[in-house]
Automatic annotation (TrEMBL):
<keyword id="KW-0282">Flagellum</keyword>
<dbReference type="InterPro" id="IPR036429">
    <property type="entry name" value="SpoA-like_sf"/>
</dbReference>
<dbReference type="InterPro" id="IPR001172">
    <property type="entry name" value="FliN_T3SS_HrcQb"/>
</dbReference>
<comment type="function">
    <text>FliN is one of three proteins (FliG, FliN, FliM) that form the rotor-mounted switch complex (C ring), located at the base of the basal body. This complex interacts with the CheY and CheZ chemotaxis proteins, in addition to contacting components of the motor that determine the direction of flagellar rotation.</text>
</comment>
<keyword id="KW-0975">Bacterial flagellum</keyword>
<keyword id="KW-0966">Cell projection</keyword>
<dbReference type="InterPro" id="IPR051469">
    <property type="entry name" value="FliN/MopA/SpaO"/>
</dbReference>
<protein>
    <recommendedName>
        <fullName>Flagellar motor switch protein FliN</fullName>
    </recommendedName>
</protein>
<dbReference type="Pfam" id="PF01052">
    <property type="entry name" value="FliMN_C"/>
</dbReference>
<dbReference type="InterPro" id="IPR012826">
    <property type="entry name" value="FliN"/>
</dbReference>
<feature type="domain" description="Flagellar motor switch protein FliN-like C-terminal">
    <location>
        <begin position="45"/>
        <end position="115"/>
    </location>
</feature>
<keyword id="KW-0283">Flagellar rotation</keyword>
<keyword id="KW-0145">Chemotaxis</keyword>
<keyword id="KW-0472">Membrane</keyword>
<dbReference type="InterPro" id="IPR001543">
    <property type="entry name" value="FliN-like_C"/>
</dbReference>
<keyword id="KW-1003">Cell membrane</keyword>
<keyword id="KW-0969">Cilium</keyword>
Length: 125
């Protein structure tokens, strides 16, 4: 128990010393050396590339035997629970979750949760 107290005292002393040694440092504002017009042109070159966007309601695994027995009126049970958000995929990569809406007699999707850019980049690797 005394050894634990000595360790705690050493940590407290080290933390106190670090606080007294700390000095305020002014940081210069970062400058962007890149030409923004060049960057805009680079971005513009990819903005018109078509991508495939799809909404996934759910998935199911069935045997080929059961697949061949499907006909009009058959029901395939999906793993998703009713009311659970749909997955929004772009070129097969999950980018958001959403819910089905009807707009002018057409189905649409309202995005409820968009995956952050950092998370999307991590999934690409």
């Amino acid at each position: 128990m005394a050894n634990d107290q000595d360790t705690m005292d050493e940590w407290a002393a080290a933390m106190a010393e670090a606080e007294t040694d700390a000095k305020a440092v002014e940081l210069e504002e970062l400058q962007d050396d890149r030409d923004s017009a060049v960057d805009k042109r680079k971005l513009d070159t990819i903005l018109d590339i078509p991508v495939t966007i799809s909404m996934e309601v759910g998935r199911a695994k069935i045997s080929i035997r059961n697949l061949l027995q499907l006909n009009q009126g058959s029901v395939v049970e999906l793993e998703r629970i009713a009311g659970e958000p749909l997955d929004v995929l772009v070129n097969g990569t999950l980018i958001a979750h959403g819910e089905v809406v009807v707009v002018n007699d057409k189905f649409g999707i309202r995005l409820t949760d968009v995956i952050s850019q950092i998370e999307r980049i991590k999934k690409l690797r």
